[in-house]
Design goal:
Layout lengths: L1 E6 L2 H16 L5 E6 L10 H6 L7 E2 L7 H19 L3 E5 L3 H12 L4 E4 L11 H12 L2 E4 L2 H9 L6 E3 L3 H16 L2 H4 L8 E4 L3 H4 L3 H15 L3 E4 L2 H10 L9 E4 L4 H10 L2 E4 L2 H9 L4 E3 L7 H5 L3 E3 L4 H13 L12 H5 L4 H15 L2
Parallel strand pairs: 1-2, 1-4, 2-3, 4-5, 5-6, 6-7, 8-9, 8-11, 9-10, 11-12, 12-13
Helix pairs in contact: 1-7, 1-17, 3-4, 4-5, 7-12, 7-13, 10-15
């Protein structure tokens, strides 16, 4: 069996790693062709993940790069179609909700190649998010919907997609279970950043809804207040966010306890998360990784595609509002006070048993062998 695994962004590389291992270990012979669209082309957001996670080098690198959503997706669609014509896979495997996901689903569907969508069924119910549009289209075009949570199964049933949907668990849970101990052994990020045993927090901020609007300055100022008034923060800054700060808010300065650093690799980020007392983020993936590692999270959005992290007691939605962010941080830090037991979130209750990749590969092989 020949598959094409289409990836292009940091979260997709993380999800690909356990699936790639499971494909290599499968009883059925699988030739997997990894295609990197180049959606994330900065080495700190791309190359480092392949080397750290021991993912085979991409067989094809499209080098699409940046652009508006329409331009970027169109370039990918044209390039992916060419790859599929050349490689003639039995199935295309897509991940998550990026423009790479959408391009892969469209190209394969138009060529009548079966599509397996890993992390299907997520919904934020916010159509202004480009990721939400990508998810919906990819799910409706895919032949196998490989679903991480019961909530996602219910979302797909509401869209009449239950017959194609299979609950396998969350492949990112596999990745964190596999790599968290490795990060403690291999990462020296705490030494490099001179972080001692004291409490600190981790920040990420990259979504266009936050960076490409007036919200960014309010968020930056709120982060300054959190760092100076509550807990020191480590802020690996996404290239998009750096560019926006430099162009729109050149006079803004981070306070001493808000430490801006270059983007970090996956193992370094896991090590930071594991040692942190709190996370502030607008990333969907980081919300879950914090939950898996029992680290309280404040999400800098009004919605989440992972309501399980909220229902499970690990996540607070604070949007971009300064007062809500400060209140959420204060409340969350109370849960990690040394006088109390540290928080423990029941990840397996929501996200499976950490063997999602193995189940995914079995479903892909089964579909290939039976056609259903």
């Amino acid at each position: 069996m020949k598959t094409v695994s289409l990836v292009g962004a940091r979260p997709q590389f993380v999800k690909l790693a356990p699936v790639s291992r499971a494909m290599a270990a499968a009883e059925h012979d699988i030739e997997d062709v990894i295609v990197h669209t180049g959606q994330h082309y900065d080495p700190s957001l791309s190359d480092v993940f392949f080397s750290e996670l021991k993912i085979p080098e991409p067989a094809v690198s499209l080098g699409v790069g940046s652009g508006s959503h329409g331009v970027q997706t169109a370039r990918m669609l044209e390039s992916v179609e060419s790859v599929l014509l050349d490689r003639r896979p039995d199935m295309v495997v897509i991940y998550g909700d990026t423009n790479s996901t959408l391009a892969g689903a469209l190209a394969a569907a138009k060529m009548h190649i079966p599509v397996a969508h890993i992390e299907a069924g997520l919904r934020s119910f916010e159509r202004e998010m480009p990721e939400e549009v990508n998810r919906i289209v990819a799910d409706h075009l895919s032949d196998i919907l490989l679903v991480p949570t019961q909530t996602a199964m219910e979302n797909l049933a509401a869209e009449n997609l239950a017959a194609r949907s299979i609950l396998v668990g969350d492949v990112m849970f596999d990745a964190v279970k596999f790599n968290s101990a490795l990060s403690r052994e291999r990462s020296d990020i705490l030494d490099r950043l001179a972080i001692q045993d004291s409490l600190f927090g981790v920040v990420t901020l990259h979504r266009a809804a936050n960076t490409d609007s007036g919200r960014l300055l309010e968020l930056l100022n709120a982060l300054n207040e959190v760092a100076s008034g509550f807990v020191p923060l480590i802020f690996p800054v996404h290239p998009r966010t750096v560019a926006r700060i430099n162009s729109e808010y050149p006079d803004w300065k981070a306070v001493e306890d808000l430490k801006l650093v270059e983007p970090v690799g996956y193992l370094d980020m896991l090590r930071l998360l594991d040692a942190a007392g709190i996370v502030l983020t607008d990333s969907g993936g980081l919300q879950k990784e914090a939950f898996f590692l029992n680290v309280p999270c404040v999400t800098l959005r009004e919605e989440t595609e992972w309501p399980e992290t909220v229902d499970g007691g690990g996540n607070t939605l604070a949007g971009a509002d300064r007062s809500r962010i400060l209140a959420a941080v204060k409340e969350r830090l109370g849960s990690v006070d040394s006088a109390n037991d540290p928080p423990t979130y029941d990840a397996e209750r929501f996200f499976g048993d950490g063997r999602a990749a193995e189940k995914i590969v079995k479903q892909i092989v089964s579909y290939h062998c039976t056609g259903a």
